[in-house]
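I am hoping you can look over what I have pasted underneath with an eye to the fold:
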Amino acid sequence: MKKQLTFLIGILICFVSCNFSEKEKKAEIKITKPIVEEKSKKNIEEQKKENYQFVENDSIAHLWQSELESLTKSFSGFIVKTKLKQNNHDETQTDTIKTLTFDKSIIEVYSTDGFYAVWSADIKNSELPIWSYVKVGMKKYQLEKTLANRLKSDTIRLGNLEQTSVFEFYFSDDELDQVKFEGYVD
């Protein structure tokens, strides 16, 4: 009787462990499926960024950057969040990082004693009055006229030779969807 009971318990343990491992495999399959979908979405976004046309124009990039800085100081429609941070190079200085939000657009500004610069910008709506000649919603041929340059890609990067300050223009169906700016701040 003891031998039969031991044998039955052994079979029961084997059966339960087999069922448990099957459930784990099904759970793993469910978990990995969304990760694959996220990777494919990221690949599409990365391909857009990689397939860009670079336009080197120091004077326009500098002018547009200074106009963007002026807007951050004068436009009253922003919702402002301020964060103070100790300076990485001089512990006696405090840096100020402001996040300015207007509808779907976000601009980050860095300032410290005697220095003020736009760190980054993500402009997604045409109501933000940065430039009268470049707005979200404009056609690609209009930007071609402004830059006096033939645009062959749906992603245009405009900046200086070193690409320390860069504007990115994203087009969809020949219409400007988004303008991003990346400035260099140490």
